[in-house]
Write a structure and sequence with these properties.
Layout (H helix, E strand, L loop, with lengths): L1 E4 L9 E7 L15 E9 L2 E10 L4 E5 L13 E5 L23 E6 L4 E6 L1 E2 L9 E5 L8 E9 L8 E7 L5 E8 L2 E6 L1 H6 L5 E5 L5 E8 L5 E5 L12 H13 L2
Antiparallel strand pairs: 1-6, 1-9, 2-5, 2-7, 3-4, 3-6, 7-8, 10-15, 11-14, 11-16, 12-13, 12-15, 16-17
Amino acid sequence: MNYFFFLNHPDPDLESSIELFNRAPMDIFSNEKKESKNIYLFYIENQKWKNELYMKIQYNTSILIKKSDLLPKFKDKSVFVSMTDRELNGDEAPFNDNTMQSIPAWRSNIKISSKFTATSYQGEIPGSFLNLNLSLTSCSPFLQFGENIENYFYLINLNSDPIEREFKIEILDKHKQLIDKIICRTNYVNVFNLKFLKKLTDDYMYIFRSKGFGGIPIYFARTIDNKSFSLEHTHPPQEYLFLGNRNLYQKKKKSFWLDE
């Protein structure tokens, strides 16, 4: 089971959207049934998980869902979207089953757009993350400090516990020196304007780390007139290694940056 998300942005001129596909990336590596699915919206209300049926999507079709298409009550909420053949009651929390289990991963197209342009990437939150104690090590060279350019850091966290908890993200330079700290929330699409970094250092390599909670790190850059965008994310450490003991590599890399 995979979950998708809207990249909420503080600029009201920017639109966030998700394009869902009811078909596996490759049939040969998927046992998915070729049938219609229900699209559900998961969100937290009064520290409890809730869900609502958005629509039914037919097999081999796709749909673009804009955040602005949702009911007004969702405007300021972090909404997570998934597909299942089950009929859910409104109090069911996000869960993990074999839906959307495939190689390569079953993803959606996650987009930010303006009236001038758009940028997107193919991403997902695996349902297996829901009950894991994750940490974060994201080494990012993606920031672009130039005239009239703004950089934003997203961290998308999702877990089965509906209590929204605060946790700390430390920002280091390439020498492992602490530059600053930011506070994120669990089960939330966290977003931060990184303009303060340029005032603290001229370095272009930053490490975002957390020992408490993890998530999906995404880096968004834009010109302030919203005419040029870029959207990047860093992979989990084991994704940088082909074959070999990938879990050992991940453990060593995280131990180095987390000082464990």
